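If your schedule permits, I should be very grateful for your opinion on a structural question. I have a record of one protein: its chain in single-letter code and its fold written as discrete structure tokens. Kindly check, if you would, that the fold set down in the tokens agrees with what the sequence suggests. I remain grateful for any guidance, and I place the record below:

***
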Amino acid sequence: MKEKNILITGGTGFIGKELIKRLLNKKYCIYVLVRPKNRIAEERFAELSEELSIGEYEKVKLIVGDIEQKQFGLSDSAFVGLANKINRIYHAAASVDLTAPIESLRRTNVFGTKTIIKLAKEAMRSGFERLNFISTAYVSGKRTGTIYETELGSKRGFSNNYERAKFEAELLVEKAKSELPICIYRPSMVMGDSKTGWTTAFNVLYGPIRLIYYGSLKIGPCGSYSVVDPVP
């Protein structure tokens, strides 16, 4: 049996960073997929290591790759080599831009997921344990009422392209369940730490909360029946 190795995509993002923090104390080697973006990947990885206080003794390794590229931009041998190393995948990389064009979101959220599934299938040849896919509660789109976890439908449509792209990604993951051990997670609006409130991203509800705190927002578009569903 190979050493316990985990691949995390989206490791420089909000959820990805929290995953790394919680896995650091385990007996795992963590591979973090980082794309160059506007700077070299090594710089982004160095910033991540400093922010999370990752010491030299920690088993955290950089994989330079782009989720939007075929095989992350890796050669065939490098892609297969990565698959042979890993036991688990946490796929947290995603574009969360609610206003982006659907094709742009599909490149990251759908095509990226397709590549992750390909990697997991290759890893099944040598002791792969599980693909953990970070989805969203909003794959339910505009549906209302009680929605069961097995009900993945789109008859009511979606509120934005992000929801549609994540729904399409989940369709791929559901289809792959016949060949892979998979767990799907559907968080709602992700907020900071449940005890300290610490966060690296002030998105979603933080904007309105800040406006309320500074007295700039006197009236909110809601009623006593409104439900807000953040998850720490």
